[in-house]
Amino acid sequence: MKLRKTRAPRKGYIQIIPMIDVMFFLLATFMLASLSMQNLDSLQVNLPKGQAEKLSAEKPITLTLTKDSEIYINKESVTLETLAVKLKPLLEDAQPKLIVSADSEAPQGIVVQAMLRARQAGVQQFLIAVRHK
Fold first, then answer.
1. Residue 89 has what DSSP assignment?
2. pLDDT in tens, 32-84
3. How many domains does the chain have?
4. Which residue, 49, 89, 83, is CA-closest to 64?
5. Cβ count near 45 (within 10 Å)
6. How far apart are CA 66 and CA 69, in angstroms?
7. Smallest Cα–Cα separation from 98: which of 120, 80, 68, 66?
8. What is the 3-state secondary structure (H, E, C) of 60-75?
9. What pTM was estimated for this model as a whole?
10. Is residue 90 included in any domain, yes or no?
11. Residue 79 is part of a domain; what is its CATH number?
12. Which domain holds residue 103?
């Protein structure tokens, strides 16, 4: 009678394909989460169409003008008279750049007046927010 030899136990190994799938899933999840955390501190307005370079500011200050001639600085409602007063303390902490996010149907006069008041507060550069075509 012939007995079979017992097999030697197999050594474990790591399968790399499922690990790659998990890593891609985590990468996509963190990318989407980081995009949703980006905040411009502006209200939703109907921006004019145009082409512009991407903004790379650390903490942007946003001047939002709606079609109803309402003015906001970082979601805080202001008037033309109080615009320079509210904007001056914000400019001390950051570079004197201001993102102007004006609705395409906002009156041109109120946009120009708001930009002039911002210039009086010390803004040196204006960045105009547009919607890409």
1. H
2. 888 776 655 555 666 666 665 665 556 678 888 888 888 898 888 888 888 88
3. 1
4. 83
5. 20
6. 5
7. 120
8. CCEEEECCCCCEEECC
9. 0.55
10. yes
11. 3.30.420.270
12. 49-132
